[in-house]
């Protein structure tokens, strides 16, 4: 964790110790790869250790193994510290709600268990080395710009919120918002939406694209416990005019107290994750004042960061002290302060600016609003054959403009949320693979439109993408191929084996540990290939011969699926050695008529087919069709197929 390492080579370099970067490094290390994790600041853990303690996720069911590990670590912390029946355990909501310091302890604990990870803070990217389009090495400066170091690696991952490494390496990227027309996104571009439940769209919502970036802020860790409270400070300089609209909002009944200005969500031990309030026109977001952040050099970025901090500190001071506010309002606000046991190294103020959106690379696939909505004619979001993670949070965006008459004192332009339209979705591998740069994956500043990033940009999703990226790098090194050429099917095999989720079903329980249930694993894999047109896997239901035949035809086109035998055509197939005669086959019911009357696949016939499959593919498996089974379930059939398909792929790779 020092800057003493100079001109050293690693298997993988991860730039950015965000949750995605940490997950990527862990995945790589667990597969035996020497991994260097570089963080340009002194702070590790990104937003999860900087105040974002109320996880942006609708359900843990849609989260992959690495985030589950984190959540289990949080739950274990509170259980060991306070007892299984404690208030703190209840308040942590199964590990989804946590204090910043606890998140730091859990993430650092995950890192400490990995002997192959070298973590270095304060390593600011200064230069990249490329050969043709291949990223080969990077140069970094230490704290204060001193002691430059050069690091080379076989492969790289950019896990920064800003996409700094990808941009410096020459990857194309987008900034701002697309228009409705560019990708056919209904809510793209200029939009005035009432964030209240009605979600009314106001006139002036014309949908043009622009270079605007959704607002940044800080996720404050506040408390009203007098024994753990640090008073708010008045920033210097203090600009009262920034907040001068609030007294009128109070007089006109739009806000009544500090909780109407800040969205103060409880986390354990009497603290809050205090965010911008959706209904307040003057909250902790600072629209229109982050345009100069993304492309700026580090020193200029610090000025933008300080501007945001000064704004938020001024807001807090205003709420407690401005005499134009009612005394009752000020007294209510006066109960609150910064948590004294958090962020001591940064004056009890969060160290990380909430960069919700910055650069978005142009990759092999562009994820849009439409990828997170129900596909036309289907019962689920669009299927992606190269899915490597799933997401489940409503598409949203924070404001891109300050208060205007068009917003009617209700809406800020650009602020939106689509909870009734957003479906649980798959995220394709191609979103992480940048155009025009080799040997690099980008799991945070992914290839997405502004609207598409509006749901991907949540830390649990970014962690899953980071974990997938780290696994992809390790597998590429093992197979001797580039990350662009990597067999995504092989990657999916590896991810499913370690608890990653790549397809969601409402009726198939999630798994978060290695192995999982073979039928569930198989369904998740085949769910990326179009076998299911809705969110029902129905794994316990009998499989029909029509379904089985269609699945076989589809699987034959997959990596490793060539040569998969078809089902036996006859429902009356006898074993060798049994005399078929006497028999008048032309007088018997024709097979199509038989299958119409008896649609389910008989176990005996399935066993014959499975034996033929093992013979054709030269593989065997532990999952089989039981002799005493009344029928073959969909889950059993898919599990048999997937186990053998995966073995065949692995065998083919080893033979090469």
TrEMBL record:
This protein's record includes keyword Magnesium: no
Keyword Metal-binding part of the UniProt annotation: yes
Highest taxon of source: Bacteria
One Pfam family linked to the record: FAD_oxidored
InterPro entries for the chain: FAD/NAD-bd_sf, HdrA-like
MF terms in GO: 4 iron, 4 sulfur cluster binding; metal ion binding; oxidoreductase activity
Keywords: 4Fe-4S, Iron, Iron-sulfur, Metal-binding, Oxidoreductase
Protein name, entry field: FAD-dependent oxidoreductase
Gene source species: Paenibacillus hemerocallicola
């Amino acid at each position: 964790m020092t800057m003493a390492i100079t001109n050293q080579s690693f298997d993988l370099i991860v730039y950015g110790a965000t949750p995605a970067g940490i997950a990527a490094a862990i995945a790589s290390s667990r597969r035996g790869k020497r991994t260097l994790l570089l963080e340009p600041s002194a702070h590790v853990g990104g937003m999860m250790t900087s105040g974002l303690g109320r996880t942006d996720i609708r359900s843990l069911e849609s989260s992959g193994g690495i985030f589950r590990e984190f959540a289990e670590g949080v739950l274990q912390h509170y259980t060991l510290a306070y007892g299984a029946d404690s208030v703190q355990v209840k308040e942590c909501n199964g590990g989804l709600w946590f204090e910043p310091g606890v998140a730091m302890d859990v993430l650092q604990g995950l890192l400490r268990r990995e002997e192959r990870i070298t973590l270095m803070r304060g390593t600011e990217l200064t230069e990249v080395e490329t050969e043709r389009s291949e990223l080969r090495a990077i140069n970094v400066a230490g704290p204060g710009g001193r002691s430059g170091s050069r690091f080379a690696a076989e492969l790289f991952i950019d896990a920064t919120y800003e996409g700094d490494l990808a941009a410096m390496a020459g990857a194309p990227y987008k900034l701002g918002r697309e228009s409705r027309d560019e990708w056919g996104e209904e809510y793209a571009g200029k939009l005035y939406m009432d964030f209240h439940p009605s979600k009314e769209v106001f006139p002036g919502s014309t949908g043009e694209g622009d270079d605007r970036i959704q607002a940044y802020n800080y996720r404050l860790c506040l408390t009203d416990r007098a024994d753990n409270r640090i008073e708010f400070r008045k920033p210097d300089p203090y600009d009262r005019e920034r907040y001068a609209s609030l007294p009128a909002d109070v007089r006109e009944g739009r806000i009544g107290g500090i909780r109407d200005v800040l969205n103060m969500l409880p986390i354990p031990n009497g603290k809050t994750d205090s965010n911008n309030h959706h209904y307040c026109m003057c909250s902790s977001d600072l629209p229109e004042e982050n345009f100069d952040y993304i492309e700026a050099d580090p020193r200029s970025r610090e000025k933008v960061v300080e501007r945001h901090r000064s704004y938020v500190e001024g807001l807090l001071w205003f709420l407690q002290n401005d005499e134009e506010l009612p005394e009752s309002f000020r007294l209510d606000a006066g109960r609150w302060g910064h948590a004294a046991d958090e962020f001591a190294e940064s004056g009890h103020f969060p160290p990380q600016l909430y960069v919700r959106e910055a650069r978005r690379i142009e990759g092999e696939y562009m994820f849009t609003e439409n990828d997170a909505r129900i596909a036309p004619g289907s019962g689920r979001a669009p299927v992606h054959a190269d899915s490597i993670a799933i997401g489940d949070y409503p598409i949203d965006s924070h404001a891109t403009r300050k208060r205007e008459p068009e917003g009617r004192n209700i809406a800020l332009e650009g602020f939106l949320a689509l909870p009734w339209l957003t479906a649980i979705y798959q995220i394709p591998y191609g979103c992480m693979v940048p155009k025009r740069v080799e040997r690099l994956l980008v799991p945070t500043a992914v290839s997405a439109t502004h609207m598409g990033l509006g749901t991907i940009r949540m830390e649990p999703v970014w962690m899953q993408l980071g974990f997938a990226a780290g696994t992809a790098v390790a597998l590429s090194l093992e197979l001797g191929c580039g990350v662009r050429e990597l067999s995504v099917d092989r990657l999916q095999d590896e991810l499913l084996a370690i608890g990653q989720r790549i397809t969601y079903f409402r009726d198939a329980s999630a798994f978060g540990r290695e192995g999982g249930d073979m039928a569930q694993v198989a369904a998740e894999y085949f769910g990326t290939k179009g076998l299911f047109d809705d969110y029902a896997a129905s794994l316990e239901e009998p499989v029909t011969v029509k379904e089985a035949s269609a699945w076989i035809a589809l699987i034959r086109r997959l990596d490793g699926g060539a040569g998969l035998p078809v089902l036996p055509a006859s429902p009356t197939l006898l074993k060798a050695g049994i005399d078929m005669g006497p028999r008048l086959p032309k007088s018997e019911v024709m097979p199509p008529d038989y299958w119409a009357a008896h649609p389910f696949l008989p176990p005996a016939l399935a066993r014959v087919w499975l034996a033929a499959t093992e013979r054709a593919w030269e593989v065997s498996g532990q999952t089989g069709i039981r002799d005493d089974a009344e029928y073959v379930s969909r889950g059993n059939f898919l599990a048999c197929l997937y186990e053998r398909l995966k073995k065949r792929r692995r065998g083919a790779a080893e033979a090469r």
